Batch of 2 targets.
Target 1
Amino acid sequence: MKPQTGTLPVFNAVVLAGGRSSRLGGVPKAGLILEGKTLLERTLDTVRQAGRVAVAGPAELEDVLPAVPAQCFFVREEPAFSGPAAAVGAAVDALCRAGAAEDSVPPWTLVLACDMPGAAGAVQALLAEASSEPGTSLMARDSSGALQPLAALYRTDELRGAVQSRSSVNGHPGGLENLSMFRLLARVQWREVAVPEGSTADVDTWADAGKWGISPGSRAV
């Protein structure tokens, strides 16, 4: 990882927290507790320097937070559970509309899934890269060489353009249902950023959760 040589990039954040958690028996990942905090709390701590944070997921996720940060609001893809691209589209659209009202849409948008307990290392690497060599969207590459589109720092105009290219005639994100992230990003140019080992490891199963010391009973109720 390159040392940070510039100022911190100005960014909004999209946090994805609305999947079915089918391999966890329907237990919401966002409410799993690690070291006294839910995964959603930990993720919001990781993006606390963002100007605005759109959490894509059901409004009842507020119940797993002791307090909702002032810059944070909830959005929901339509239809619900229609995939990460649809959730990103809904969140990006809401963030851009909110910023346009104040003429303050930042140049960067961080997209982060809430089921990566070690994501702080990946986010730090992405922000450092953007500070030292700004200009191009950035996507995390894990130690196995896999790209992580849900741990990425995108140029807002490019990500917004990708969403708009599939917008319906009424101006709302459409055509994103069950679309893969890489298809959404087909026209977005990005550079790969190597991130610390384990920083993008996600919690999909109870076996994954156990690696972090999260047990089936370790969840917000």
Target 2
Amino acid sequence: MTDKTAHTGKNTGGDVRLTGISKTYGSFTAVHPLDLTVPQGSFFALLGASGCGKTTTLRMIAGLEDPSTGTVFLGDKDVTDLPPYKRPVNTVFQSYALFPHMDITENIAFGLRRRGIKSVKKQVDDMLELVQLGDKARHKPHQLSGGQQQRVAVARALINHPQVLLLDEPLGALDLKLRRQMQLELKRIQTEVGITFVHVTHDQEEAMTMADQVAVMNGGRVEQLGAPADLYENPQTTFVANFLGTSNLIEAEVVETGTDVVVTAGGGKLRVPGDRCTSAVRQGGKVLVGVRPEKISLAHADDAGKIADGRNRVTGRIADSSFIGVSTQYVVNSPAGAELQVYEQNIERDTRLVPGAEVVLHWNPAHTFGLDAAQDIDAGVETVEDAG
């Protein structure tokens, strides 16, 4: 790719590639050396708790931080040593940083005017239409809602035709309902313009809703990379299992390996598909068996005989239940593990399923996964302090 094509601003140029990139501040390592490829035209999320290195990684792509080691490629071009304004990227921050004295049209046109482009009306109108704010063209930022200001910030960034749009917690300041609306809105905009979006967030639901690919970061490293459904269904570490939704992790011992891995837990046997076990599990010994709360069905002990053969089953006693409309969430204590979580949809509620009731938890073995027991079983579990 020549310099000329790199500066036309058209999306001529491929993916974002980070090779061996790291960042240290004195003795603290914010990002350990990592290799990451963001495919062209994809919506890519960097997901993790605060302090995991996701924003630092984004800032290295933008040129706002110099990497301690490694290289940043945009398409075929090595941009590691280029200042931010020479990179074909634009960033949208949580604080939208709109100019309060300018109306929306002038805010969006700002980047073009700064480059000396005189006739901006057509491009600005196109952007206003894209973000569905045509009727607000002459409003000032303070006359708009948070979600509308957010869309202006996106339009102002996109009008420069960057190869990559970087989004740093862009929905963090919005309330829940508006945030959900904006997730769909941003996904629509990304699909329409076809530009690569790299989105930093600590919100698991946000990453899963919007992104084609998610890199889950923890302690300056990428724990796992993949499509949202794959990360959720096939976590490779306890951190990913706990951080993306909720997982029941049961301490178990391998008794047989084959197509299925058979384990004992709390006196009973459970089956785990061999292809849903990490390599450490297939070597035997102590393992962690995982199953998501919504995959489990709950039967009263009196109905144990009606459960189909071949299902994994664990006996227990209900310790607590919470009715939350669409589902009831149960906490069950069992020989296999304390405080197992079960989410049952409220279709036909069994009135016998109350705290103190003896129950059988049962599920399809195909929904079970196996992890290395050498990891911290509680890694990635959000505490009340984290959520604040």
